[in-house]
Amino acid sequence: MTTLTEPEAPAATAATGEGSTPGRGLGRQIWWWVCTLVVIVLAVISALVTVIPLIFGAVPLTVLTGSMRPGIQPGDVVVSAPASPHDLRLGDIVTFQPESDDPTLITHRIIALSDGDAGVQLITRGDANSADDPQILAEQVRGRMLYVVPKVGYVTNMVSGDLRGPLVTIAGFGLVGYAVFTFVRRPRGASERNTP
């Protein structure tokens, strides 16, 4: 004997709206991954500019001029950490005060070192400059460059004054927290939608 069985009615699928647009679930998943990737990138940048400097006692500084082009551009953030005068080497990029007790800071490369009666003395020059900077004492050096975060300085310059540090730190921790949240919570997949 031959029998015919009716396939299950697709009416339930049509009633819920699922299955009517086959790429809809895929589009949501792609959107979720793109948003997650953006948040992760922002969290990493934020960590590079705020969290890591806090851990190592470093200072993030926004580059304002093109004296260190092409390697360091205006708008980049240079993160410099304190260094002992005897740890400084030719070729190191250092942040220094050109005159003692002057709040102005310059970040240039060491091109000459000498140890004299006054202590370690340095001559620096910006990579894009043709002239050397005046000689400085190692005590004027505020830090040696650890790394550069490209173009982030434009954003940090928008928030100025005493609020900058706390706001950037809060934003950094917020982005890291959101990145963790997005990894823990995954997008609804097809298997979850079809479960009764």
Kindly give the count of domains: 1
N to C succession of SSEs? HHEEEEEEEHHH
Largest sheet: 7 strands, antiparallel
Rg from Cα? 28 Å
Description:
Its EC number is 3.4.21.89. Residues 1-23 are annotated as: Disordered. Residues 40-113 form the Peptidase S26 domain. It comes from Mycetocola tolaasinivorans. This is Signal peptidase I. The protein has 196 residues and is of the alpha+beta class. The chain has one domain (37-184): Umud Fragment, subunit A (Ribbon), CATH 2.10.109. It has five helices and seven strands; from the N terminus they run ααβββββββααα. The chain has helices spanning 11-16, 24-56, 153-158, 164-184, 190-194; strands spanning 59-62, 77-81, 93-96, 106-116, 119-125, 136-137, 141-149. It has a seven-stranded antiparallel sheet. A hairpin with a 2-residue loop joins β4 and β5 (119-125). α2 packs across α4. The two termini are 35 Å apart.
List keywords for this structure.
7 strands, elongated, alpha+beta, 196 residues, LexA/Signal_pep-like_sf, Umud Fragment, subunit A, single chain
In short:
With about 200 residues, this protein is an alpha+beta fold. Helix content is about 35%, strand content about 20%. Strands 1-2-7-3-4-5-6 form a seven-stranded antiparallel beta sheet.
